[in-house]
Amino acid sequence: MPKNRNPLSSLAARRRGVASRAVHRVWAWVRETGAVTAQHPGRLRFGRIGTGTRLAFPQGTVFGEPWIELGDHCIIGEQVTLTAGLMPDLDLGSEPILTLGNGVVLGRGSHVIADTTVSIGSDTYCGPYVYITSTNHSYDDPQQPVGKQWPRMEPVVIGPGCWIGTGAVVLPGARLGRNVVVAAGAVVRGEVPDHAVVAGAPARVVRSWDPEKGWQPPLRTPAPVPVPDGVTPEQLAAVALLLEGRADGA
Fold first, then answer.
1. pTM for the whole thing?
2. 171-208 in b/e burial notation, b at 16+ Cβ within 10 A?
């Protein structure tokens, strides 16, 4: 016969369940309340924050906001660092230092460090933990600690429509063209032409688009089939349920 459950143990489990649900509800409220938008900027006063743009809570380090301009419908993940200038409370002049176009996505834990100008074009998506910087340590003087030497600064320009993979690093002076793909973990410097795929450290072009020949070298997988025009979310949900039913029946 099965052993009888300890009533005290069951009571403790129920209490833990109630406490767990309460913690999750509170955390969901904190995340919603702590998010930054144009309507609810909190303590942050950006030079511009566009319609529909949202910085998830908790935010990373953010300073120099008057010189940071965020376009419309940007998604800034949790713990993303956005900085303009070498340190807080500097007067950086009348022009923006860090600019994000419309629809930019910065994944969780990413850093954008703009000691001089950094521009990220519209509809550029960055995976988690991407590092974009206009500043690099110098090590010209072998007698001085590297961290104490004056850094080098060069503007960074990332064109529209790019995809920057997880853990990639974009170094000072980099200029990425339109619709560039940066592989995860790549370290990018210098110029990257439009419609190129780069990988490695330092990154090099591993695939590019030719108007006459298409992708070179050719893609190894067929292009995905997009959802046909006119299909509603409700129809997609119904198809998903139908496929699930078939899978269960198999």
1. 0.84
2. bbbbbbbebbbbbeebbbbeebeebbbbbeeebeeeeb
